[in-house]
Amino acid sequence: MLMYMGPFPCYFTIDPVIIKDILNSKLCRDKSDLTYTGVINALGKGLITMKGSEWIPHRKLLNPPFKVSNQITFLPIFNQKVNGLFAAMDQCGYMENSRDILKFCREFTLNISFETMLGHNARAKNIDTKHIAKLVTHITEYISEIIFKFFYFNPLVLNLAHRTIFRECRETIEYVKGEIDKILKSFSTGQHDAGYLENLYTAIHCLYESLENNETPREIIISGMIHLFSGAFETTSSSIYFTVLMLAMHPEVQSKLFSEICERFPENDDGNMEVTYEHLSQLPYLDMVLKETLRLFPVVPQIARQVSGGNVRLSNGVVLPEGLNVMLNIFLLHRDPQIWGPKANTFNPDNFLPCNVEQRHPYTYMPFSKGTRNCIGMRYAEMSLKVTMAKIIKRYKFSTTAKIEDFEWENHISLHLVNNPPLTVERR
Question: Would you say the pTM of this structure is higher than 0.90?
Answer without folding.
Answer: yes
